[in-house]
Amino acid sequence: MVRAPDRAKPALRLDYCKGCGRCIGACARGCIAPGTEIDAASGLVPVALHLDACNGCDLCVDACPEPYGLVTAAIARTLEAAAERRQLQMAPPAVED
Known about the structure:
Radius of gyration: 17 Å
């Protein structure tokens, strides 16, 4: 029997998650729980991911009202690469001795 490839799991972006809990109700496998720690950058309590049982269905991503709070793994990689490029562009020029 041919096995379907594993789907990528979602990624939580703490600086965008407001902890509304919509993703908690959308996850049939119970992989998302209410958060317990305040994010220092936002002052909010984002949800907590426990992705051991996650099948990568992305229903949680669809339920998230924040455009970048909970994203697919592919979008997370794209956003991280863009942030790295911005950091490189903003880096001060090297000083020659």
